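Hello,

Our lab assistant flagged a job as stuck in the queue for most of the afternoon. It eventually completed. Since we weren't sure the result was trustworthy after the delay, we are filing this so someone can double-check. Below is the sequence as submitted and the structure that was eventually returned. Let us know if re-running is recommended.
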Amino acid sequence: MAFQVLLRMHRRPISMPLLNLTEKRKLMNLLKKLWEEEEGQDLVEYGLLVVLISLFALASMQSLATGISNAFSNAAAQLSGT
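-- returned structure --
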């Protein structure tokens, strides 16, 4: 319903008023409902948490990879006798 209101707003000629009173009420009710709705917040919070964990894991894996590479280089150097 609100999508149809927004679509009609977009397709109106410039000379026509943007919204009539009932459309304004519908749009305001939709905006109030979206503002007060809390169902999607959990999903966003979990998504941010996954992103933060991924960034931390990526940073720690890079330093871990450098440490492992150095350890194998040292072991190879000691085995080759140089």
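-- support follow-up --
The delay was a queue issue, not a problem with the job. The result is valid. The helical segments are 2-11, 21-36, 39-80. The CA atoms of residues 41 and 65 lie 36 Å apart.
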